[in-house]
Amino acid sequence: MGIRMPRIIQAKQILQRSLSNGTRTSTMDLPKGYFAVYVGEQEQEKKRFVVPVSLLSQPSFQDLLHQAEEEYGYDHPMGGLTIPCSEHIFFDLATSLGAI
Q1: pTM summary value
Q2: Smaller CB count within 10 Å for the chain: N or C?
Q3: Are 14 and 83 contacting, i.e. CB atoms less than 8 angstroms apart?
């Protein structure tokens, strides 16, 4: 009997689809087990964060992924995963989850 984790699987699928549609961030500048996200409400104010893949299993991060899906679909303007929230909110969330 296996444990099913549909939200984690769904979050990974969202991430894979969003990365496959844009130009990927070079894997040379990302440590293994991490991925890059662009965060910000205004296009010119986006900031890049490198966060651990383990963040995908967190429900609060999955909520951000769903917001990104609603806002951008799978075509992210920055070429990588773009999250439409303020940098301050993302930083607080990532810090509380131990990602930054």
Answers
A1: 0.66
A2: N
A3: no
From the number of C-beta atoms within 10 Å of its C-beta (0-12, 13-18, 19+), residue 91 rates as middle
Distance of CA 35 to the CA centre of its chain: 8
CA 69 to chain centre: 10
pLDDT in tens, 85-94: 999 999 999 9
Residue type, 17: R
Residues 3, 39: Cα–Cα separation, whole Å = 32
User: Which two structure tokens, joined as six digits, stand for 94?
Assistant: 């990532």
C-beta of residue 94 within 8 angstroms of C-beta of residue 51:
yes
